[in-house]
Model the fold of this input.
Amino acid sequence: MRTVPKGQTIYAFAPEISPVMSVEPQEPVIFETIDALGGQVQAEDDAVESLDFSRVNPATGPVRIVGAEPGDALAVEIRSIELADRGAIIAGPGMGVLGDVIERPVTRLLEVVGDTVQFAGLELPVAPMIGVIGVAPEEGSFPTGTAHRHGGNMDAREIGPGATVYLPVAQPGALLAMGDVHAVMGDGEVCVSACEVSASVRVVLRLVKGGAPRWPVVETAEEIILLVSLPTIDEALHEATSEAVRALQKALSLPFEEAYLLASLSANLGVSQLVDPNKTAKAVLPKTLVGPFERWCGASP
Amino acid sequence: MRTVPKGQTIYAFAPEISPVMSVEPQEPVIFETIDALGGQVQAEDDAVESLDFSRVNPATGPVRIVGAEPGDALAVEIRSIELADRGAIIAGPGMGVLGDVIERPVTRLLEVVGDTVQFAGLELPVAPMIGVIGVAPEEGSFPTGTAHRHGGNMDAREIGPGATVYLPVAQPGALLAMGDVHAVMGDGEVCVSACEVSASVRVVLRLVKGGAPRWPVVETAEEIILLVSLPTIDEALHEATSEAVRALQKALSLPFEEAYLLASLSANLGVSQLVDPNKTAKAVLPKTLVGPFERWCGASP
Done:
């Protein structure tokens, strides 16, 4: 099995990142990822203030996919996520939704035992997901902690085993990297972090020629999730609404006004994370209505 | 069966609204509600511009609940929602999330046939819910189209059959009114309206003495949904996060910092509506974690 090791990480998605490996479509690949804290938190008295933020959010990769060209969609089929047996979570003043309220930094280690995460005597069911996943963007350099059209730190709960993430290829070879796996997280990731764990992610990569979405799309068994990341959640929700309308127009050949009404009836707007430099909104559509991504991707409008 | 007829409506929740009926706790009551457009849209060429907005969002009631006192929670157990056989949906410039994009007003009538809503040749599964539900506030007058601590136009999808809504009683007798039933709606209600229908809502009312929540709470079989409505979705999401932390502190006797971390792991922040004068955010907690509302309501902090 082709494996991208932990040591091969990037801290920014940029057009010129250099691939560490080339793979063929349909070839299974394992990404060994480091936790989003860069492995710096190993004890509960490891102070949040002393974190080296230049080592936060490492993404393993990038991997070049043979044949990927700008305008394609890169399909990342997530087959499995194997978690380390311990994670960590941090919060502190100035970080997270209540960064204006919390008075002191706090760190907790979280044991991952079987299908549970242990926290304060509670057992939370694990729900593994990939926080950072992206490709080289068309232009600009995006720190791995920032999400945008290329993907990045979207922190979408839906990006877990069984899901397929569709990313817009903007550079030859796509140049895929990922990291920031969470053992469990709530929509919003309100305290700024979740159960941050190292992991082993097994994926199969596939190309949809000419199928590049405008923003990353996740497909699960039942749903299409459109992910938009912009500086404010207001802007992101506005654009996610536009994306939902556009998807309905394309999937069902509807004029704008009809698709807008249908979005109001059937699209569930929501949030993925509220705590990174760009905030991530989602619009969730039932596949009973729009069908799979590949049925309507790539076409106008 | 005690029935509050369609003709008995209010257009604002205020401290001094006059009850049209008194009921005992545990006595089943039917509220006959008028659609949120006030029954003004009966044809697809009924122009949005000619709507009389003083007749929009009628709420049936208010009903006085014997024994309700400020500081209590009024539990509204929703037993059933019987829908009219036709609804309507509207949108137009300046309204809804894409009010800056849509170029002309549009009105559609929607047939409700069995368990489906018919739209553009599609069949959407009905999911009845109450858009406006509230009690007399402590002070101020809130148009029924505006949501705040007293409830009002929260447009939460979860307020449907089988759910219980807990509202903070602020005036003697509580003074409950409701309306704006939707046959189906997506989170966000992005175009400004949903499938607006008249309906017959059967509820049982109950008091939780001294149990007033700070903001309305919905309980379903699996979840606790905390609803916060403020002028921007940013403010509402911030306050909903605070409410989630507070609920976790109360339910699990945790200090603030622990509850904040746990919220990041287990609370799902989201949106109910993005289109009314106050926007409604939600924080969803699993009952496996916090248990039923009545276990932790009313206590400090």
The mean pLDDT of chain A is 96. Helices of chain A lie at 233-252, 256-266, 287-290, 293-296.
